[in-house]
Amino acid sequence: MTFQQIKQTLKHRLSARRFEHSVGVSETAVQLAERHSGDVEKARLAGLLHDCAREMPRNTLLHTAQSFGIVMGSIERRELALLHAPIGARLAQTIYGITDPEIIAAIAAHTVGGPNLGQLSVIVYLADYIEPTRSFPGVDKLRSLAQTNLAAAMIESYDHSIQYIISRGGLIHPATVEGRNELLLQRDN
């Protein structure tokens, strides 16, 4: 499929709001890739497809994850919405014909982050966080930080996510903690 064919397919499969968000993530990922010498075309595609499974009903998420053989921990079983990332990575392969491992990894990691993320995964994670339709206290600071320092922006976004999850009494995914700790150790060495 071409990029335009994928975009048209997503437009029909997603709600207008989710499609607008996906386009915003794609455009923001392109800006970050240009700014940080990343792969612009991979950023454009990964950003567009990152939420391709986001609107699946909860029962469908669970069934689809099982059919794909996606390993679920206790956190994913309780927070089924997290499954849209690894399922989206599989749908990118099976429906949209994406074979690039960096794009697939970026889609799979965009909700919780994690250690050892490649540049494309970092760009898509941040683009999802700061695209133009996002509005929360601190988003402008995060947008500015992402323009100059991707690692610092990731630490800030992890901090924001963790604080938000704690305020709601939610479970913090270990990958988020591992990703944050890795960046802090790198920064301090």
Automatic annotation (TrEMBL):
Residues 18-133 form the HD domain. Pfam families: HD. One of its GO terms (molecular function) is metal ion binding. Keywords: Hydrolase, Iron, Metal-binding, Nucleotide-binding. It catalyses: P(1),P(4)-bis(5'-adenosyl) tetraphosphate + H2O = 2 ADP + 2 H(+). PANTHER family: BIS(5'-NUCLEOSYL)-TETRAPHOSPHATASE, SYMMETRICAL, SLR1885 PROTEIN. This is bis(5'-nucleosyl)-tetraphosphatase (symmetrical).
